[in-house]
Amino acid sequence: MLKLMSFVCRQAWGIRIVAAVLALQIVMLPLSASASASSASEVVPVGLPDSMVRMLESQRISVQNVSLWVSDAQGNPRIAHNVDVPRNPASLIKLHTAWTALETLGPGYRWETGVYTFAPIVGDVLQGDLYIRGGGDPWLVSEEVWKLTGALRRQGIREIQGDLVFDLSLFDLEPEDPGAFDGQRFRAYNQPPHALLMNFNALRFEFRPDADGRSVRVTTDPPNSVVQVDNQLRLQPRSCSGFQRGVNFQVVDEERVRLDGSFPSTCREYGLLRTAVSPEAFAYGLFREMWQQWGGSLNGQWRLGALPPEVLASLRQDRRSDSETSDAQEAYEPLVLHRSPTLAELLGGVNKRSNNVMTRQMKLAIGLEKYGPPATVEKGNQTLREFFAERLPGHGEIMLDNAAGLSRTNRITARQLAGVLSSAQSSLYAPEFLSSLALSGVDGTLRERFVEHPAAGRMRLKTGYLRDVSGVAGYVNAASGSAYTVVLMINHPGIDHSRGVDIQDAILEAIYEERF
């Protein structure tokens, strides 16, 4: 108890949450007596326990804006409060996307990026263009691009005299304003899907006081010579605090960023992760940087284009058939075929770290697998809705327009989401699904929660937050050894991230200690 109070007191609004946790310590004797009188096969679900009601009221959260589902290992609901009210799940919807991906694509699924040329290679010189066919890889990060360029260099090519030609035809996407959801168009989490998305199209701008003590040194990770940085920052003697540490970030045009404002001299380093240029310009700059690291040179620029029709036809035929490769197909073999890590390896990015960009890329692969190329947003959304209806008949429909949760119109009930969790847990791929969830006090979005608490490592959960939305869902192994499936969704005006986390933790602790 003292450890718990110490933990919650460290929160920003400590006094109020201590009151909330103390309220949850009240033992509900009539409820306990009733539960003990019932056999396991006669478990009757109850509404929100009085202790939780008092805690929520103390935080000025209406119980009408809260849904809570708790069921035991046999699937018997133990708490069922507003479980059929459709709510905005925020990132909790990623649970359904991840489950659907595992079941439709399989844990061994890999994305492929092909590198082609149709120009002569004389000695170590490619006398023409190099084509890169985007495959929608959600994990084409700088390390993977380094591997791709290294594999190309091992083909004996050193100099590329032509252009980089990007074939993006696998995706057919409408233009999307990255800032449409929340006005933050250059935040990395808002990057739209793309057939050739290298490093999520994101640069980390790193700031450090220069050795002269008078200026601010700015570098980017990964290095990208396409992005020109106009550094107007001033060094100022003050504490290392404040919004963006005083850095004002502006994208001036397609390839130029301006940084101004004052940066604290007491900051050893600080970083901003931003999207600054188009995915095509970014891919060109990153490819060129990695190619040069392998001793290669690139003379041309980038442009969009498609592989010849006969090559695309052979790729479509290859998708439809597992039969032996024909002579025609062999003629169109890529110089390099880069394959991503498996879906099972990447799924932690979706659930543990709640990566929006990866999730949206995976959704397109789901639709592509069912309906064929080109991949579209609607094919992906439709597949997710249909999969839910097929696997959970009788659970009604879900409203889904964004598989990552960046939506004000997504709707799902706590009972429906509990159905997803129960089905995933009984799936052939349950180990892969479970291992993709954040572990309390250990990793992902739960890394700093329940640290040095008996519940550390005993909860596998997905978290979700938006303005006015807070939620958590997954599995809790109670102190007694009993296992519970939990879905908590709060849609309440003004609930912020910090308050949402503390309410979640208080309820999760009550479930861990079986105080219901």
UniProtKB/TrEMBL annotation:
The biological process GO terms on file are: peptidoglycan metabolic process; proteolysis
| Lineage: superkingdom | Bacteria
Q: What are this entry's molecular-function GO terms?
A: serine-type carboxypeptidase activity
Keyword Protease listed? The answer is yes
InterPro entries in UniProt: Beta-lactam/transpept-like (IPR012338), Peptidase_S13 (IPR000667)
Is the keyword Protease in the record? Answer: yes
List UniProt keywords, sorted A-Z.
Carboxypeptidase, Hydrolase, Protease
Q: Which family does it belong to?
A: Belongs to the peptidase S13 family.
In Swiss-Prot or TrEMBL terms, this protein is called D-alanyl-D-alanine carboxypeptidase / D-alanyl-D-alanine-endopeptidase (Penicillin-binding protein 4)
The major lineage groups are: Bacteria, Pseudomonadati, Pseudomonadota, Gammaproteobacteria, Chromatiales
